[in-house]
Amino acid sequence: MRYPPALLLLLSTTLFGCSSQARVVSQPSFALSDTQGTRLGEGIAKEALRHQAASGFHLLGNGLDAFVTRLLLIEAADQSLDVQYYLYHDDATAKLFTYYLLRAADRGVRVRMLLDDFGHDGQEKLFSALIQHPKISIRLFNPFSNRAMPYIDFLLRFSRVNRRMHNKSFIADNQAAIIGGRNIGNTYFAADEYINFSDLDVLGVGSFAPEVSTAFDRYWNHKLSIPIQQLEPSVHSSALSVVRTQLEAISKSENSRAYLARLKSLQLVEDLKHGELELHWAEFSLIFDDPDKILNSTDDDTGHIAPALIALLDRVHTEALIVSPYFIPEKDGVENFANWVESGAKITILTNSLAANDVPLVHSGYASYRKPLIKAGVKLWELQPTAKIKIKGQHNRSLSSSSKASLHAKTMIFDRDTLFVGSMNMDPRSINLNTEIGLLIYSEKLADYASEAFLEELPAHAWRLDMAVKNGIWGQSEQLIWLDESTAPATIISHGSEPEAGRWSRFKAWFFGYLPLESML
Protein backbone atom coordinates (compact mmCIF):
# COMPACT_ATOMS: atom_id res chain seq x y z
CA MET A 1 0.00 0.00 0.00
CA ARG A 2 1.30 3.48 -0.85
CA TYR A 3 0.53 6.55 1.26
CA PRO A 4 -0.03 10.15 0.09
CA PRO A 5 3.13 12.32 0.46
CA ALA A 6 1.29 14.68 2.83
CA LEU A 7 0.45 11.79 5.18
CA LEU A 8 4.03 10.50 5.08
CA LEU A 9 5.25 13.99 5.96
CA LEU A 10 2.80 14.20 8.88
CA LEU A 11 3.88 10.77 10.19
CA SER A 12 7.57 11.55 9.92
CA THR A 13 7.09 14.87 11.72
CA THR A 14 5.06 13.26 14.53
CA LEU A 15 7.21 10.19 15.06
CA PHE A 16 10.69 11.49 14.36
CA GLY A 17 10.50 15.21 15.01
CA CYS A 18 11.63 17.97 12.69
CA SER A 19 13.90 20.97 12.68
CA SER A 20 13.95 24.07 10.56
CA GLN A 21 17.75 24.03 10.77
CA ALA A 22 19.92 22.91 7.89
CA ARG A 23 22.11 19.92 8.72
CA VAL A 24 25.24 20.98 10.62
CA VAL A 25 28.44 19.12 9.84
CA SER A 26 30.19 17.92 13.01
CA GLN A 27 33.68 19.32 12.78
CA PRO A 28 36.22 17.23 14.71
CA SER A 29 38.14 18.95 17.48
CA PHE A 30 40.67 17.74 20.02
CA ALA A 31 42.15 18.62 23.39
CA LEU A 32 44.66 21.47 23.32
CA SER A 33 48.13 20.04 23.86
CA ASP A 34 50.17 23.21 24.36
CA THR A 35 48.92 24.12 27.84
CA GLN A 36 52.13 23.83 29.85
CA GLY A 37 52.32 27.62 30.14
CA THR A 38 48.90 27.98 31.75
CA ARG A 39 48.58 28.76 35.44
CA LEU A 40 47.55 25.19 36.15
CA GLY A 41 50.26 23.78 33.89
CA GLU A 42 53.08 25.69 35.56
CA GLY A 43 51.98 24.82 39.09
CA ILE A 44 51.48 21.14 38.33
CA ALA A 45 54.85 20.89 36.57
CA LYS A 46 56.52 22.43 39.63
CA GLU A 47 54.96 19.83 41.92
CA ALA A 48 55.64 16.93 39.50
CA LEU A 49 59.39 17.56 39.65
CA ARG A 50 59.37 16.35 43.26
CA HIS A 51 57.87 12.94 42.43
CA GLN A 52 58.80 9.87 40.41
CA ALA A 53 55.22 8.88 39.52
CA ALA A 54 53.72 10.74 36.57
CA SER A 55 50.37 11.58 38.16
CA GLY A 56 49.02 12.89 41.44
CA PHE A 57 45.55 12.33 42.91
CA HIS A 58 43.26 13.90 45.49
CA LEU A 59 39.96 12.37 46.69
CA LEU A 60 36.85 14.57 46.74
CA GLY A 61 34.42 13.05 49.21
CA ASN A 62 32.55 16.11 50.45
CA GLY A 63 29.79 17.30 48.13
CA LEU A 64 30.29 21.01 48.74
CA ASP A 65 34.03 20.86 48.16
CA ALA A 66 33.60 18.63 45.09
CA PHE A 67 31.42 21.28 43.48
CA VAL A 68 33.52 24.25 44.53
CA THR A 69 36.66 22.53 43.24
CA ARG A 70 35.01 22.39 39.81
CA LEU A 71 34.14 26.10 39.97
CA LEU A 72 37.68 26.97 41.05
CA LEU A 73 39.16 24.95 38.19
CA ILE A 74 36.84 26.76 35.77
CA GLU A 75 38.10 30.07 37.14
CA ALA A 76 41.71 28.87 36.90
CA ALA A 77 41.43 27.64 33.30
CA ASP A 78 43.25 29.73 30.69
CA GLN A 79 42.63 27.82 27.46
CA SER A 80 40.06 25.00 27.58
CA LEU A 81 37.31 23.27 29.54
CA ASP A 82 35.85 19.91 28.55
CA VAL A 83 32.71 18.70 30.34
CA GLN A 84 31.08 15.27 29.89
CA TYR A 85 28.09 14.14 31.97
CA TYR A 86 25.18 11.73 31.94
CA LEU A 87 22.81 13.97 33.94
CA TYR A 88 22.76 17.77 33.88
CA HIS A 89 19.87 18.93 36.01
CA ASP A 90 17.80 22.08 35.69
CA ASP A 91 18.51 23.30 39.22
CA ALA A 92 20.58 25.77 41.24
CA THR A 93 23.99 24.05 41.14
CA ALA A 94 23.72 23.24 37.44
CA LYS A 95 22.82 26.86 36.69
CA LEU A 96 25.74 28.12 38.80
CA PHE A 97 28.06 25.67 37.05
CA THR A 98 26.79 26.91 33.66
CA TYR A 99 27.29 30.52 34.73
CA TYR A 100 30.95 29.86 35.52
CA LEU A 101 31.44 28.11 32.18
CA LEU A 102 29.99 31.15 30.43
CA ARG A 103 32.31 33.44 32.40
CA ALA A 104 35.25 31.35 31.29
CA ALA A 105 34.14 31.56 27.66
CA ASP A 106 33.88 35.36 28.02
CA ARG A 107 37.58 35.52 28.86
CA GLY A 108 38.52 33.39 25.85
CA VAL A 109 38.45 29.82 27.20
CA ARG A 110 37.18 27.19 24.75
CA VAL A 111 34.27 25.24 26.30
CA ARG A 112 33.12 21.87 24.97
CA MET A 113 30.11 20.30 26.69
CA LEU A 114 29.04 16.73 25.87
CA LEU A 115 25.84 15.48 27.52
CA ASP A 116 23.80 12.33 27.18
CA ASP A 117 20.47 13.24 25.58
CA PHE A 118 18.51 11.40 28.27
CA GLY A 119 19.42 13.49 31.30
CA HIS A 120 19.44 17.23 30.60
CA ASP A 121 15.86 17.94 31.73
CA GLY A 122 14.82 19.40 28.40
CA GLN A 123 17.17 22.39 28.54
CA GLU A 124 17.62 22.63 24.77
CA LYS A 125 16.65 26.31 24.71
CA LEU A 126 19.36 27.12 27.25
CA PHE A 127 21.93 25.16 25.25
CA SER A 128 20.83 26.76 21.98
CA ALA A 129 21.40 30.17 23.57
CA LEU A 130 24.80 29.23 24.96
CA ILE A 131 26.17 28.09 21.60
CA GLN A 132 25.65 31.61 20.26
CA HIS A 133 28.89 32.26 22.14
CA PRO A 134 31.79 31.68 19.73
CA LYS A 135 33.76 29.82 22.43
CA ILE A 136 31.03 27.35 23.46
CA SER A 137 30.14 24.10 21.70
CA ILE A 138 27.52 21.63 22.96
CA ARG A 139 26.79 18.13 21.68
CA LEU A 140 24.19 15.56 22.73
CA PHE A 141 25.14 11.89 22.74
CA ASN A 142 22.84 9.25 21.25
CA PRO A 143 20.00 11.75 20.72
CA PHE A 144 16.34 10.85 20.53
CA SER A 145 14.84 11.05 17.05
CA ASN A 146 11.61 12.58 18.28
CA ARG A 147 12.50 15.93 19.87
CA ALA A 148 8.90 16.78 20.81
CA MET A 149 8.05 13.42 22.41
CA PRO A 150 11.35 11.61 22.98
CA TYR A 151 9.83 8.74 24.95
CA ILE A 152 8.19 7.51 21.75
CA ASP A 153 11.70 6.34 20.87
CA PHE A 154 11.48 3.81 23.69
CA LEU A 155 8.68 2.19 21.70
CA LEU A 156 10.25 2.47 18.26
CA ARG A 157 14.00 2.36 18.92
CA PHE A 158 14.26 0.75 22.37
CA SER A 159 17.43 -1.24 21.71
CA ARG A 160 19.30 1.99 20.90
CA VAL A 161 17.85 4.55 23.31
CA ASN A 162 17.97 2.14 26.25
CA ARG A 163 21.77 2.36 26.06
CA ARG A 164 23.22 5.58 27.43
CA MET A 165 26.50 7.44 27.96
CA HIS A 166 26.96 7.19 31.73
CA ASN A 167 30.47 8.77 31.77
CA LYS A 168 31.36 11.68 34.03
CA SER A 169 34.49 13.73 33.41
CA PHE A 170 35.68 17.30 33.78
CA ILE A 171 38.99 18.59 32.36
CA ALA A 172 40.62 22.01 32.77
CA ASP A 173 43.39 23.06 30.36
CA ASN A 174 44.25 19.40 29.69
CA GLN A 175 46.14 19.66 32.99
CA ALA A 176 43.69 18.70 35.74
CA ALA A 177 40.76 16.27 35.47
CA ILE A 178 37.97 15.02 37.72
CA ILE A 179 36.18 11.71 37.24
CA GLY A 180 33.92 9.75 39.58
CA GLY A 181 30.28 9.18 40.36
CA ARG A 182 28.86 12.70 40.39
CA ASN A 183 26.66 14.22 37.73
CA ILE A 184 25.80 17.94 37.79
CA GLY A 185 22.87 18.73 40.08
CA ASN A 186 21.86 19.58 43.64
CA THR A 187 21.61 15.98 44.85
CA TYR A 188 25.29 15.36 44.09
CA PHE A 189 26.59 18.45 45.87
CA ALA A 190 24.72 18.49 49.21
CA ALA A 191 22.22 21.10 48.06
CA ASP A 192 18.97 19.16 47.73
CA GLU A 193 16.19 19.52 50.30
CA TYR A 194 15.00 15.93 50.05
CA ILE A 195 17.93 13.67 49.14
CA ASN A 196 21.71 13.84 49.38
CA PHE A 197 23.80 11.42 47.34
CA SER A 198 26.91 10.17 49.14
CA ASP A 199 29.48 10.13 46.37
CA LEU A 200 33.18 10.20 45.51
CA ASP A 201 35.27 11.86 42.82
CA VAL A 202 39.00 11.95 42.27
CA LEU A 203 40.98 14.95 41.05
CA GLY A 204 44.03 13.95 39.05
CA VAL A 205 46.93 15.87 37.49
CA GLY A 206 50.00 15.01 35.44
CA SER A 207 49.76 12.41 32.66
CA PHE A 208 46.29 11.44 33.94
CA ALA A 209 44.58 14.55 32.54
CA PRO A 210 45.67 14.05 28.89
CA GLU A 211 44.44 10.44 29.06
CA VAL A 212 41.01 11.64 30.22
CA SER A 213 41.12 14.15 27.35
CA THR A 214 41.80 11.32 24.91
CA ALA A 215 38.69 9.53 26.18
CA PHE A 216 36.68 12.75 25.92
CA ASP A 217 37.83 13.34 22.33
CA ARG A 218 36.87 9.80 21.38
CA TYR A 219 33.29 10.54 22.46
CA TRP A 220 33.19 14.14 21.23
CA ASN A 221 34.15 13.13 17.68
CA HIS A 222 31.99 10.01 17.57
CA LYS A 223 29.07 9.81 15.12
CA LEU A 224 26.60 9.54 18.03
CA SER A 225 27.64 12.99 19.35
CA ILE A 226 25.43 15.49 17.55
CA PRO A 227 25.78 19.31 17.73
CA ILE A 228 22.78 20.82 19.50
CA GLN A 229 22.14 23.16 16.55
CA GLN A 230 21.51 20.13 14.35
CA LEU A 231 18.75 18.95 16.69
CA GLU A 232 17.01 22.14 17.80
CA PRO A 233 15.66 25.23 16.03
CA SER A 234 17.79 28.34 16.38
CA VAL A 235 16.80 30.87 19.03
CA HIS A 236 16.57 34.65 18.86
CA SER A 237 19.86 36.51 18.60
CA SER A 238 19.20 38.10 22.00
CA ALA A 239 18.84 34.70 23.72
CA LEU A 240 22.43 34.59 24.98
CA SER A 241 22.09 38.01 26.57
CA VAL A 242 18.89 36.96 28.31
CA VAL A 243 20.47 33.74 29.58
CA ARG A 244 23.52 35.64 30.81
CA THR A 245 21.29 37.96 32.86
CA GLN A 246 19.32 35.01 34.30
CA LEU A 247 22.44 33.05 35.25
CA GLU A 248 24.03 36.08 36.86
CA ALA A 249 20.91 36.59 38.99
CA ILE A 250 21.03 32.93 40.06
CA SER A 251 24.68 33.34 41.06
CA LYS A 252 23.61 36.02 43.53
CA SER A 253 20.71 34.05 44.98
CA GLU A 254 20.40 32.59 48.46
CA ASN A 255 21.04 29.08 47.10
CA SER A 256 24.41 30.17 45.72
CA ARG A 257 25.75 31.98 48.77
CA ALA A 258 27.09 28.94 50.62
CA TYR A 259 28.99 27.84 47.53
CA LEU A 260 30.39 31.29 46.90
CA ALA A 261 31.44 31.60 50.53
CA ARG A 262 33.27 28.27 50.29
CA LEU A 263 34.71 29.45 46.97
CA LYS A 264 36.58 32.16 48.84
CA SER A 265 37.93 29.90 51.57
CA LEU A 266 38.85 26.67 49.77
CA GLN A 267 42.54 26.86 48.88
CA LEU A 268 42.74 23.57 46.97
CA VAL A 269 43.10 24.98 43.46
CA GLU A 270 45.25 27.91 44.61
CA ASP A 271 47.60 25.38 46.16
CA LEU A 272 47.48 23.39 42.92
CA LYS A 273 48.40 26.46 40.86
CA HIS A 274 51.38 27.11 43.11
CA GLY A 275 52.55 23.51 43.25
CA GLU A 276 51.65 23.21 46.93
CA LEU A 277 48.65 20.83 46.96
CA GLU A 278 49.21 17.58 48.85
CA LEU A 279 48.59 14.86 46.29
CA HIS A 280 49.05 11.10 46.26
CA TRP A 281 51.48 10.48 43.40
CA ALA A 282 51.10 7.01 41.91
CA GLU A 283 50.86 4.89 38.79
CA PHE A 284 47.39 4.42 37.33
CA SER A 285 45.27 2.92 34.56
CA LEU A 286 42.40 4.85 32.98
CA ILE A 287 39.79 2.44 31.63
CA PHE A 288 36.72 3.41 29.62
CA ASP A 289 34.20 1.96 27.23
CA ASP A 290 34.61 2.80 23.58
CA PRO A 291 31.49 4.71 22.45
CA ASP A 292 30.93 2.03 19.80
CA LYS A 293 29.62 -0.07 22.69
CA ILE A 294 26.24 1.65 22.16
CA LEU A 295 26.14 0.44 18.56
CA ASN A 296 27.54 -3.06 19.00
CA SER A 297 25.81 -6.22 20.17
CA THR A 298 25.76 -6.77 23.91
CA ASP A 299 27.65 -10.01 23.27
CA ASP A 300 30.60 -8.07 21.82
CA ASP A 301 32.84 -6.74 24.62
CA THR A 302 35.48 -5.28 22.28
CA GLY A 303 36.66 -1.97 23.73
CA HIS A 304 34.70 -2.45 26.95
CA ILE A 305 35.75 -1.42 30.43
CA ALA A 306 34.37 -4.70 31.80
CA PRO A 307 37.20 -7.11 30.80
CA ALA A 308 39.78 -5.05 32.72
CA LEU A 309 37.61 -5.04 35.85
CA ILE A 310 36.58 -8.66 35.45
CA ALA A 311 40.24 -9.64 35.23
CA LEU A 312 40.78 -7.83 38.51
CA LEU A 313 37.71 -9.45 40.07
CA ASP A 314 38.73 -12.90 38.84
CA ARG A 315 41.97 -12.73 40.81
CA VAL A 316 41.91 -14.01 44.37
CA HIS A 317 42.49 -11.20 46.85
CA THR A 318 43.29 -10.99 50.53
CA GLU A 319 40.81 -8.15 51.02
CA ALA A 320 38.19 -6.39 48.93
CA LEU A 321 36.05 -3.41 49.88
CA ILE A 322 33.30 -2.73 47.34
CA VAL A 323 30.94 0.26 47.29
CA SER A 324 28.21 0.25 44.65
CA PRO A 325 24.79 1.94 44.92
CA TYR A 326 23.28 -0.49 42.43
CA PHE A 327 24.71 -3.93 43.12
CA ILE A 328 23.64 -7.02 41.18
CA PRO A 329 26.54 -9.51 41.32
CA GLU A 330 24.78 -12.29 39.38
CA LYS A 331 25.60 -15.94 39.98
CA ASP A 332 29.20 -15.72 38.73
CA GLY A 333 29.94 -12.80 41.03
CA VAL A 334 28.64 -14.65 44.08
CA GLU A 335 30.79 -17.66 43.17
CA ASN A 336 33.85 -15.44 42.81
CA PHE A 337 33.33 -13.92 46.25
CA ALA A 338 32.80 -17.38 47.73
CA ASN A 339 36.13 -18.54 46.26
CA TRP A 340 37.90 -15.51 47.71
CA VAL A 341 36.50 -16.09 51.18
CA GLU A 342 37.38 -19.77 50.95
CA SER A 343 40.98 -18.78 50.24
CA GLY A 344 41.03 -16.56 53.34
CA ALA A 345 40.03 -13.18 51.90
CA LYS A 346 37.90 -10.61 53.72
CA ILE A 347 35.09 -9.22 51.53
CA THR A 348 33.07 -6.17 52.61
CA ILE A 349 30.31 -4.78 50.39
CA LEU A 350 28.27 -1.60 50.90
CA THR A 351 25.18 -0.87 48.84
CA ASN A 352 21.88 0.93 49.32
CA SER A 353 19.14 -0.37 51.58
CA LEU A 354 15.67 -0.30 50.04
CA ALA A 355 14.88 2.81 52.08
CA ALA A 356 18.00 4.57 50.72
CA ASN A 357 17.72 3.33 47.13
CA ASP A 358 16.34 5.83 44.61
CA VAL A 359 15.55 3.00 42.16
CA PRO A 360 13.43 0.23 43.80
CA LEU A 361 13.51 -1.72 40.54
CA VAL A 362 17.28 -2.19 40.88
CA HIS A 363 16.89 -3.19 44.53
CA SER A 364 14.61 -6.01 43.43
CA GLY A 365 17.40 -7.36 41.24
CA TYR A 366 19.88 -7.24 44.12
CA ALA A 367 17.66 -8.60 46.91
CA SER A 368 17.75 -12.24 45.81
CA TYR A 369 21.55 -12.31 46.12
CA ARG A 370 21.71 -11.23 49.76
CA LYS A 371 21.36 -14.65 51.36
CA PRO A 372 23.83 -16.33 48.95
CA LEU A 373 26.38 -13.57 49.62
CA ILE A 374 26.04 -13.90 53.38
CA LYS A 375 26.30 -17.70 53.13
CA ALA A 376 29.46 -17.24 51.06
CA GLY A 377 31.03 -15.33 53.96
CA VAL A 378 30.69 -11.80 52.58
CA LYS A 379 30.15 -8.99 55.07
CA LEU A 380 27.18 -7.22 53.51
CA TRP A 381 26.16 -3.72 54.58
CA GLU A 382 23.30 -1.45 53.50
CA LEU A 383 23.30 2.32 53.81
CA GLN A 384 20.85 3.84 56.28
CA PRO A 385 18.59 6.44 54.63
CA THR A 386 19.51 9.01 57.28
CA ALA A 387 23.28 8.46 56.91
CA LYS A 388 25.90 10.81 55.53
CA ILE A 389 29.06 9.08 54.30
CA LYS A 390 32.18 11.08 55.06
CA ILE A 391 35.72 10.66 53.83
CA LYS A 392 38.33 10.81 56.56
CA GLY A 393 40.02 14.19 56.69
CA GLN A 394 37.12 15.98 54.97
CA HIS A 395 34.89 18.37 56.85
CA ASN A 396 31.17 17.69 56.80
CA ARG A 397 30.01 20.99 55.35
CA SER A 398 26.57 20.12 54.04
CA LEU A 399 24.45 22.89 52.60
CA SER A 400 21.11 21.34 53.34
CA SER A 401 19.53 19.14 55.94
CA SER A 402 18.35 16.55 53.42
CA SER A 403 15.70 14.20 54.74
CA LYS A 404 17.21 11.18 52.98
CA ALA A 405 20.67 9.93 52.09
CA SER A 406 21.39 7.63 49.16
CA LEU A 407 24.64 5.98 48.17
CA HIS A 408 25.96 6.95 44.73
CA ALA A 409 29.72 6.34 44.92
CA LYS A 410 31.26 3.58 42.80
CA THR A 411 34.47 2.54 44.53
CA MET A 412 36.50 -0.63 45.06
CA ILE A 413 39.66 -1.24 47.05
CA PHE A 414 41.69 -4.41 46.62
CA ASP A 415 44.43 -5.70 48.93
CA ARG A 416 45.07 -2.21 50.32
CA ASP A 417 47.11 -1.38 47.21
CA THR A 418 44.62 -0.76 44.35
CA LEU A 419 41.79 1.78 44.37
CA PHE A 420 39.05 2.03 41.73
CA VAL A 421 36.92 5.18 41.37
CA GLY A 422 34.57 5.75 38.46
CA SER A 423 31.08 5.89 37.02
CA MET A 424 30.49 2.13 36.82
CA ASN A 425 28.02 0.32 39.06
CA MET A 426 28.33 -3.40 39.73
CA ASP A 427 25.29 -4.34 37.70
CA PRO A 428 24.42 -5.71 34.23
CA ARG A 429 23.43 -2.29 32.88
CA SER A 430 26.85 -0.77 33.50
CA ILE A 431 28.66 -3.86 32.26
CA ASN A 432 26.64 -4.57 29.12
CA LEU A 433 24.53 -1.56 28.10
CA ASN A 434 25.80 1.86 29.15
CA THR A 435 29.23 3.36 28.55
CA GLU A 436 31.41 4.01 31.60
CA ILE A 437 34.78 5.42 32.69
CA GLY A 438 36.95 4.53 35.67
CA LEU A 439 40.36 4.93 37.22
CA LEU A 440 42.60 2.33 38.87
CA ILE A 441 45.20 3.90 41.18
CA TYR A 442 48.06 1.66 42.31
CA SER A 443 48.99 3.19 45.65
CA GLU A 444 49.34 1.41 48.97
CA LYS A 445 49.23 4.74 50.80
CA LEU A 446 46.04 6.00 49.16
CA ALA A 447 44.28 2.61 49.19
CA ASP A 448 45.09 2.08 52.86
CA TYR A 449 43.95 5.63 53.68
CA ALA A 450 40.63 5.08 51.89
CA SER A 451 40.18 1.61 53.45
CA GLU A 452 40.68 2.85 57.00
CA ALA A 453 38.29 5.76 56.46
CA PHE A 454 35.67 3.48 54.96
CA LEU A 455 35.82 0.81 57.67
CA GLU A 456 35.93 3.37 60.49
CA GLU A 457 32.80 5.19 59.31
CA LEU A 458 30.82 2.15 58.13
CA PRO A 459 29.08 1.08 61.38
CA ALA A 460 27.81 4.60 62.04
CA HIS A 461 26.13 4.92 58.66
CA ALA A 462 25.05 1.45 57.56
CA TRP A 463 23.35 -1.70 58.78
CA ARG A 464 25.12 -5.04 58.54
CA LEU A 465 23.00 -7.91 57.23
CA ASP A 466 23.06 -11.41 58.67
CA MET A 467 20.78 -14.43 58.81
CA ALA A 468 18.83 -16.07 61.60
CA VAL A 469 16.64 -19.16 61.84
CA LYS A 470 12.92 -18.47 62.17
CA ASN A 471 10.49 -21.02 63.61
CA GLY A 472 7.11 -21.03 61.91
CA ILE A 473 4.06 -23.22 61.49
CA TRP A 474 5.68 -24.81 58.43
CA GLY A 475 8.96 -25.44 60.24
CA GLN A 476 12.22 -23.50 60.28
CA SER A 477 13.28 -20.95 57.68
CA GLU A 478 16.22 -18.59 57.17
CA GLN A 479 15.45 -14.94 57.70
CA LEU A 480 17.47 -11.80 57.01
CA ILE A 481 18.24 -9.53 59.95
CA TRP A 482 19.60 -5.97 59.93
CA LEU A 483 22.11 -5.08 62.65
CA ASP A 484 23.21 -1.73 64.03
CA GLU A 485 26.87 -2.26 64.91
CA SER A 486 27.47 1.28 66.10
CA THR A 487 26.42 -0.01 69.51
CA ALA A 488 28.10 -2.64 71.66
CA PRO A 489 26.71 -5.22 71.60
CA ALA A 490 25.11 -4.89 68.16
CA THR A 491 21.38 -4.22 68.07
CA ILE A 492 18.95 -6.02 65.77
CA ILE A 493 17.01 -3.34 63.89
CA SER A 494 14.69 -5.57 61.89
CA HIS A 495 13.77 -9.22 61.37
CA GLY A 496 12.91 -10.14 57.77
CA SER A 497 11.48 -6.72 56.82
CA GLU A 498 13.33 -3.90 55.02
CA PRO A 499 13.99 -1.28 57.74
CA GLU A 500 12.59 2.25 57.33
CA ALA A 501 11.06 1.35 53.94
CA GLY A 502 7.40 2.16 53.38
CA ARG A 503 4.82 -0.41 52.37
CA TRP A 504 4.64 0.90 48.82
CA SER A 505 8.42 0.64 48.39
CA ARG A 506 8.42 -2.89 49.78
CA PHE A 507 5.56 -3.88 47.49
CA LYS A 508 7.31 -2.48 44.39
CA ALA A 509 10.56 -4.27 45.25
CA TRP A 510 8.66 -7.52 45.80
CA PHE A 511 6.64 -7.16 42.59
CA PHE A 512 9.60 -6.17 40.40
CA GLY A 513 11.50 -9.18 41.73
CA TYR A 514 9.18 -11.46 39.73
CA LEU A 515 9.81 -9.68 36.42
CA PRO A 516 12.56 -11.01 34.09
CA LEU A 517 14.41 -7.69 33.94
CA GLU A 518 17.77 -8.42 35.60
CA SER A 519 19.77 -8.11 32.36
CA MET A 520 18.56 -4.50 31.95
CA LEU A 521 19.07 -3.36 35.56
Account of the 3D structure:
The chain is α+β, with helices and mostly antiparallel strands and 521 residues long. Helix content is 35%, strand content 24%. The strands form two sheets. It has an 18-stranded mixed β-sheet, sandwiched between helices. The longest helix has 18 residues. It is globular, with a radius of gyration of 24 Å.
Number of helices: 19
Biggest β-sheet description:
18 strands, mixed
Strand content: 15-25%
The chain-level structural class is alpha+beta
Portion of residues in helices? 25-40%
Beta strands, count: 20
Unreliably modeled segments: 1-22, 388-401
Set out the fold topology:
Layout: H1 5-16, H2 39-48, E1 55-60, H3 63-76, E2 80-87, H4 92-106, E3 110-119, H5 124-130, E4 136-141, H6 153-156, H7 158-161, E5 169-172, E6 176-180, E7 195-198, E8 201-206, H8 208-220, E9 225-227, H9 228-231, H10 239-251, H11 254-265, H12 268-273, E10 280-288, H13 306-314, E11 319-323, H14 330-342, E12 346-352, H15 360-367, H16 370-375, E13 379-383, E14 404-407, E15 411-414, E16 418-422, H17 428-433, E17 437-442, H18 444-461, E18 462-472, E19 475-484, E20 491-495, H19 503-512
Helix pairs in contact: 3-4, 3-11, 4-10, 5-10, 15-19
Keywords:
single chain, 521 residues, alpha+beta, 18-stranded mixed beta sheet, two-stranded parallel ribbon, 20 strands
